Protein 1
Amino acid sequence: MKQENIERTITIKNLAECLWCAPLAAHWSFTEWYVERNIPFAVNLAAYQKRGNLNSVPLCHILFLDDLPIGMGSLKENDLWSRKDLNPWLASVYIIPQMRNRGYGKILISSLEEKAWTMGIEQLFLFLGQHEQSKLSHFYSALGWTQFDEAVDNDGKPTRIFMKKKKLIL
C-alpha cells in the first residue's frame, strides 16, 4: 500500500479564542502535575478559566494539530511560591504523550515567548517539575534558557529555575 504525505496544519490559539478548551487544559494539568497532590480539580479548572486573557498575564496558549488540541502552555504570575520576587513565569507547558518529541513543545514555547516580548515583558522564568529534570534542563537550554537559581518547588522539593531575557535587536 502506498502512503501519501499528508500536510498537517499547526495553529496556536489564545485560550480566549477557544474557551471550550479550558476544561481540557485543566484536565491535562491535573493529570500531569496535580493528581497526587491534595488540590481539587475544581481549583485547577478555575485557574484555567482565569487564563483567557489576550494581552495580560495570566494567559494560556493552546496548540492545535489540524483541529485537534494537542498541547498548552501559560504565562502566569507567582508560579513558584518560594520565589514570588520573580515574575512572570512560563508555566504548564504540556504536549499530549502521543505527540511528544516532534518539535511541538518548541513551537508552543516560542509563541509564548513572542507574546511576552510583544506585551513588553523583558524576561521570563520557569522552574522544572520533578519528572525528567535532566532531560528538561537540556531541552530548555537548547531553546536559549539559562539556569538562574535553585529553590524548592511548591511541594518542598529541590528544583532549578531558568530564565530567558528578551533579545535586543540593534
Protein 2
Amino acid sequence: MVMYQHRKKRFDAVDLDPYGCPSIFLDGAVQCLANGGLLLVTATDMAVLAGNSPETCFVKYGAVSLKSKACHEIALRILLQHIAAHAGRYGRYIVPLLSVSVDFYIRVFVRIYTGQIKCKENTSNLGMIYQCTGCETMTIHPLGMKKLNAGCKLPVGPPVDQLCKFCRYKHHMGGPIWLGPLHDQAFVKQLLDSIETLELATSKRLIGVLSVIGEELDTPLYYVLDRLMSIVRCDTPSMVKFRSGLLNAGYNVSFSHANKLSIKTNAPAEIVWNVVKAWEKMHPAKREKLGKESPALAILTAQPTIEISFDLHPAANPESRKLHMQRFQVNPTANWGPGARSTTIVDPREKTSKRQRNQNKHKKKHQHISPSDSPPPKQQKSNV
C-alpha cells in the first residue's frame, strides 16, 4: 500500500525481502522508484526456481524452470526477467548491478529507468532454454535480435533439431530467462574497493565472492565439471587441466560464483564436448559397459572436430584461486538452510498449541448423544 501511495513522490531505493516469492510486491515497487532508483529483491523459494515445480514457477514468475546443474544461475535469470516484465508494463526497464546466489536464496540489485525505446530493446535480453534430456547440453534462443537502429527484429529458429545433435535425445524447453548481463563490473569493482577499507565480520567472504563475480564472463549459464565427466563415465580431470583445454582452443573461461566446479565459457557446446572427448582418449572410459542408446556412447564415438591441448595455460588458474580467497561458503552445520515459517502467536489467549487444542478431537466428535437429547422412538402403525 505504501509503495502504491508514492507513485508521484517516489523513493530512491526499495528493498524487498519477503519469506518466499517477492512477486506480489514487484508491481508496486517498480512504480514507486525514482528514475535510476535502486531495487533490491530477495527470493528464498529456491525449490520452485531450481526446477522442482516448473508449473508453480510459471504461476509465480511467468517462466518455466528446469532441473539443471546451472539451476542457481537460471533462478537468477528467471527473477530478473520477472522484474523486467513488471517494469515494462509502465514503460520502464532494468539495469542489473549485482546478482548473487548465496546460501539458500538469491538476491539481485537493479536500477530502474524510464524509457520506451530501451523497453522494446529488452526483448533481445530475454530468451528460452533448450536442454537435452540425455547429455544436458543447453542451447539459448533469444526472443529478439537488436537492429542497427533502435528496436528489435524477430529471431529465426528454433536453434536445435527435434533430437540433440550430440546424443540423439529429445529436448526440454524452459524460460523465458534474462540473457543480459547479471552484473555491472564497474559497480562490482567499486563495491569491492569500499569493502576492503571496512572491518566487517564477513569481509573475507564478501571479498572472495565479489572477486569471483569480477572474474565472471558475461555469458549465460555454465557447465559443471564433474557432471560433464559423469555423463561420459570418465575420470574427472583437474579444473586447471580442463580450463587449459578450452583456453588453448582459443576461448575464454571463468568460474561462476554459484558453483565451485562451474565452467563458464564462450565456447560452443561442440568445443566443450571436444575437450571431454580429448580427455577421455587419454583416460579411456569402459565403453563395453555403456548402453547402446546411452548419451555417453553417442558422444564418444563421434569424431572430434579440433585438436585439444591440455598444456598448462597461464590464465587457467585465476587470481582469486591463487590467493586462496574464501570464494565459496561452506555450510556451518549439516542440513543447514532456511528455517520454518514463524508460527508465533501474539495473543496470549491463543498460546495453547494447535496440538493441544486438537487433542481428543475425534473422540469428542463421536461422543454418544445423551438419552435426554435423543429423539423419541417412532410409533408403529396399527393394523386395526
Protein 3
Amino acid sequence: ITPKQNNISAPHFVMYVKEYLVNKYGEQAVEKGGLKVYTTLDWDKQVAGEKAVADGALKNLANNASNAALVAIDPKTGQILTMVGSKNYFDKSIDGQVNVAIRDRQPGSSFKPYVYLTAFTKGYTPETLIYDTPTNFSSGGEKDYKPLNYNGKFSGPLQMKDALAMSLNIPAVKTLYLAGVKDSISLAKGLGIGGLNQPERYGLSLVLGGGEVTLLDHVNAYGSLAAGGIKRDKTAILKIEDKNGVVLEQYKENPGQRIVEEKYVAMLDHIMSTNEYRAPVFGTNNPFKFNDRPVAAKTGTTNEFRDGWAMGFTPSIAVGVWAGNNNNTSMKEGADGIFVAAPIWRAFMDEALKNTAVEQFPKYEKEDAGKAVLNGDQAIQKDVEVCKKDKDEDNGEFCLANDTCREGTADKKDFGEIHDILHHVNKDDPRGDYPKDPKNDPQYKNWESGLQKWIKDNKKKIKNLDPMPTQECKIEFFNEPEPEPIPEPTPVVPEPVASPVVPVI
C-alpha cells in the first residue's frame, strides 16, 4: 500500500493503520466505504519522535548509518502513541517508504532482559555470582562457540545484575543456558515478541540477538515489563465508524494478561534503572541517566555493527529506537547502540516526559536465596577451626579441630575452592539440592576449564583456596609428641664450713 500524496502526516503510522483496515474490512470499504477512523496516535509525541529521528539520523551519517526508526507505546493500554518508520518516508535513496518498525531485525543485546527475567523466574537472583571468563560453549563435537565481550576483556567474578547492566556477553550466554533457550523464547513471546520459531537455529546465540524481532513487537514486550509483567495487545485503533455512524469496533480497557509475577520484573526494573551498575562500561553520564525519575533502559548492537538499538521504559511509556541501514550494510566500526540509537531515544524521552508525574517501579525486595552463589558470594567457609595434620595428607592438609589436636596447634582458616555456578546448582532447580555429580552437566567441563585458566592467569585478582576439610581430627593424624628430655641432675657442691674460732687466752 502506497500513499497517493506527498503531504501525508505520520505516513508510516497511517499506512500501518490502512493495512490493518484493508485486511479486516477489505480494499473497497477502505477506499469508498466512508469509514471514520479514530487512532491512538499522540500528535505531540509523533512530532517529537520525527524530529528526534531526523536529527539523530543526520548525525549518524558520520557513522555510516543512513536511517533510524522509533516507536512509543502506552504500557497501561497497549496503545501506539508514536510510530516513525524511517527518517523520511519520501526519501527514495534510503527506501524511506519501508516501515523499519515492522521489519525483522536482529536486536543484539537488547534481547538480554528477557533471558535474565526467565532466569529470575527459575530461582536465580540479581546477586547470583557468575564468572565472566573465556568459555567455549560447544559440546558433543559441535563447532566452537567462543563469544567475546565488546572490549575483548574478561571481568572474572561478578553478579548477574552487573553483567546485564554492563551488557557482558559471556555471562549472558551462561545465563541463557541456565534459563533455557525454549523457556526464554516462550517468555519473550508471552510478553509480546512475535516470530522466533526456530530455537534450534538460534541456540545460545539467541541472547546476543541471534533471532529476529520487529521494533514494534520489541517495544510492546518492553511495555509488558513496564506494566509489571502484564501484557496488553498493541493497538492503533480507538474507534471505527461506518458511513452511517455505526461503531464497527472500539477500544475497550482491559486488565491484560499477567505473563510473569511482578516481583521478578521488579528485579529487572532495579537493574535496568540503576545507573551505577552500567557506569563501569557506559560512563556515569550516559544517555540513560535521569536525575529526576527512575527509567529502565538497555542498548543493543549486532554483529558487524549492522543494527544499533536503544530500548527503555517508565511505568507510563515504553520507547524503542533502531538505527542502521535498510539494506543491512554495516555501520562504521564502533557504532554501538549507545552512540547511534541512545541519543535519539533520549531526545524523545526528554520531550515525552516533560511535565509528567514521576512514577516509581515496584520495589525490589532482596531475599536470602539459600545458597552462597545465589546470594552473590563465593562458596567459602570462613574462620573454620582446624589443625594441620602430620599424616594422611592424601585427604587434605587439615582436619576439623577437636580435643585430639595438640595443645596450641588449632588455627582458624578460610576454605572453599572456586567453581563456576554449575558446581553448586542444578540449572533447572537452582534453589534445590546441590548436584550429586555436577560433572554430569554437559557444560560443566567447559565452564570450569575456562574459569580455572582465568584464575591461573589472574592470581592477584582472586584467591583459589584449599578445599573444605571433611574429617574430624584423629590421634593417628599426628605424630607422637617427642618426650621432653629429662634434665641432667645438677651436682651439689657442699659449701665450705668455716673453722671454729679458738679464743686465745
Protein 4
Amino acid sequence: MNTIYIGNLHQSVTPSLIQELFTQVAPVKSVHLPKDRVLQQHMGYGFVELNSAKDVDYCLKVLPGVKLFDQTMKLNKVNHEEHSLFVRNLDSLVDRSALQQVFAKFGELVDIKMGKGNATVIFRDSTSMQKALEVNGTMIMNCKVIVERKR
C-alpha cells in the first residue's frame, strides 16, 4: 500500500482539509481519520492513501513541518506487513470495534481488516504489535483466539 501516517492532528482538522493539502502535492486515493466510538471525534491521527510509492516519497519530502491549526503534522510511511498480526478463530459476532477495544490498549492501531472468522490487526509500530501477541490464547466472546505475526 502507498500510505502515509499523519499524526499530531488538531481536532479541527477534517478529512477534506487533509485531502486538499495532499492533493496540492500528489493525487490522493483516500483519507481516513479514525474516530473515537464514544465522542465521534477523530483521534488525532489518520492515513492518506496515494497512487504510488513515488507519490508517498514526494509527499514525505515536501510536507514535513506543515502546521495545521498551530500543530505540526507528523508524517511517516506506513509499512503494514512489519506491524501486522493475524487473528484466527474469531466468533462471528466479533466486529472491528470489539477488536479495537481488545488491541488498542497495546498501542496505536493503523487498521483492522475483518475476514470471516479472522482479522488482520495493523499497529503503528513493532513494539505495540509485539505486546499484543499476549492476546494469543485468550478468550474473545467465548472463543479462544490464535494471534500470530502475519507472514
